[in-house]
Amino acid sequence: MKIAVLGGDGFCGWPASLHLSSLGHDVAIVDNLSRRRIDAELGAESLTPIATIDERLAAWREVTGSEIAFRNIDIAQDYDGLLAFIEEFAPDAVIHFAEQRAAPYSMKNSRTKRYTVDNNVNATHNLLAAIVESGRDVHVVHLGTMGVYGYGTAGMKIPEGYLDIQVDAGENGIVEQQILYPTNPGSVYHMTKVLDQNLFAYYAKNDGLRITDLHQGIVWGTHTAQTLRDERLINRFDYDGDYGTVLNRFLMQAAIGYPLTVHGTGGQTRAFIHIRDMAKCIQLAVENPPARGERVKIFNQMTETHRVRDLAELIGRIADAEVQMVPNPRKESAENELHVVNDAFLDLGLRPTKLEEGLLVEVEDVARRYADRVDRSKIPARSLWTSNQSEGVPQGEK
Ligand code: NAD
Ligand code: USQ
């Protein structure tokens, strides 16, 4: 298959591109390298030393003999460039990772809020409009988030995108319907994924586009079988207060002897997926497209749920690390239960890589290996959801 990976230089896009290439697909990466520029803006680099995109692709060619093409296009701003790429490369599928993905970055100030909305919504809409204008039948696989649902329910499991409801229609009696699950985003970033969802529903209905939206949980880990093949293929590892996600951050903190930064009571329950399963899910989604005219296919791309303080306690125990409750810089429920349906991927054959000690130690080892690259001043989460909150800074680290 010819597969375009938008955002293929990023944390998920890079290992997914290598995985698809290793399966024999003809892969082309499109990326404007904005994530690398945000590293420079924040003064916080990936913990792992990532090679340039040219070095990465040359290494992949050397190691496997396979060619991955690269095009530097800002898909949110350069519509003509994106359209020309789709017409020229003629992909069977486009995997769309190319969005600003950090909730804390999106909440820093009005500039980053506006950038996140402009970038993410335009990127998605440009892609859909370009596919329609190209006249091609391209399957879009988009990386959405579990955060579109919010993280609580009325006690039931969160379904895969659609909710069965009954409406009292008066004299017409009780009417049954299926609707998109009501959204409850917790940041401007998460809200952009809600907006994406409506764009997808519209283009599937109006233009018959084939679209799969993957509502993904927090991705953890760093290596995949392919990124391990050469040092120059190493994946990025975000640890800073804006882009670092909770489990990888705790493992990095344990590795360098920094107290694990549990926000608030740590009662937040979230969904997780290991990076190798992320790549496998992308493969399964590409191999199982919806039919033309079918509504958007929505999969919950997660394998397990965990409460933040339980993760901290587990890592504290395994790695003999100190756990510290810090003020929560976010506006989120102090405690929540989370139960999620993920049958679609299990039915397609996903065998979940569950959180276990060996894998946690593997990530901690990566962090220990590159510990000298850590800038401790970049660890606390300093992006506040509202101005009357305090930063997530451990005592003695201000
Ligand atoms: P990332 O920031 O590492 O990668 C995104 C890539 O897209 C970057 O390389 C960036 O340069 C590129 N990009 C952004 N805007 C672009 C534009 N306008 N034009 C071209 N390229 C652009 O993020 P990630 O962690 O790999 O996440 C990928 C996708 O998966 C995101 O959409 C994110 O919302 C989703 N997701 C990520 C996680 C996670 O835990 N990392 C969890 C759930 C969902
Ligand atoms: N948290 C801590 N300590 C930390 C960092 C985070 O307690 O040092 C807490 C946060 O307050 C939050 C939870 O851990 O309650 C998750 O935070 P996170 O930064 O790991 O995840 P989040 O902001 O939700 O975003 C990440 C990705 C995003 C993706 C989302 C999936 O950056 O792209 O969409 O996970 S989900 O969480 O399922 O919505």
TrEMBL record:
It comes from Corynebacterium jeddahense. It comes from the Bacteria. Gene3D superfamilies: NAD(P)-binding Rossmann-like Domain, UDP-galactose 4-epimerase, domain 1. Residues 3-291 form the NAD-dependent epimerase/dehydratase domain. This is UDP-galactose-4-epimerase. Belongs to the NAD(P)-dependent epimerase/dehydratase family.
